[in-house]
Please model this.
Amino acid sequence: MRVDTFELRVESRDGNLGLLEVAGYINNEAGEAIAREARRLLDSGHHTLLLDLSSTRIINSIGISLLLEVLEQILEIKGTLAFCSLSPSIAKTFQIMGLSQYTKVYPDRTAALAALAGRA
Amino acid sequence: MAEPQRVRLVLPHRPHVELDAGQAVETLGLEAGFSHDTLAEVRLAVVEACLNALEYGGGEIEVEVAAHTDGSPWLEVRIVDHGPGFDPAAVPRPQLRAKLRADRKRGWGLELMRRLMDEVEISSRPGRTQVRMVRRQRGG
Model:
């Protein structure tokens, strides 16, 4: 897997859950793409967003700051921002920032979808 | 005493160039016996230091990665830019609650570097800012 490329796949799931599957390096450009798609999902009535980071190994602080914009928007509508399949270094980054206070983190997509099914 | 393995890079102001420094960390770190998980943390700290240097330095930056293998392995990384300099003590520590309300949500780089590395030293004056960071392999 090349680390400097970025791909984003978006799915609308039943129950107002939006799934964003992110692959590659999350920097400013990737963060903006994620924020743009997240806003589109929220505007179309999704209240729960799940970011699957199973193919992401590095996220820089500019990318993180753009995810905080998404989180701010979700908190305003009392929705849920969730992550799954974090690499150990990304999990540590989120822990340093204190993100677990405001988001849900699941070990994999199956666990996340099972837990979020009742929320969305 | 074994001489450290070193990689020196001069990086231009270009998108994704910070990843080249991260790759140097990965290559030397693996040879020195570091775990992938530790190297992922060092790589992020180095990416953050490079991004700061590129943004505030304005031009090309210099990066030196050294893998020391005398005893338990340790990595030492120096990042130098030639910008106007700054006072590291004046950089506020970010708080998530405040950042969520603020217009500017950036400002996490230095905090991440300090929390991911064992040592972070910054010396800065107009024309030269150097960040020196150290990470040791723990356990095993």
Notes: Chain B touches chain A at residues 15-16, 18-19, 22, 37, 40-41, 43-44, 47-48, 51, 94, 96, 99-101, 105-109, 111-112, 115-116 (CB under 8 Å).
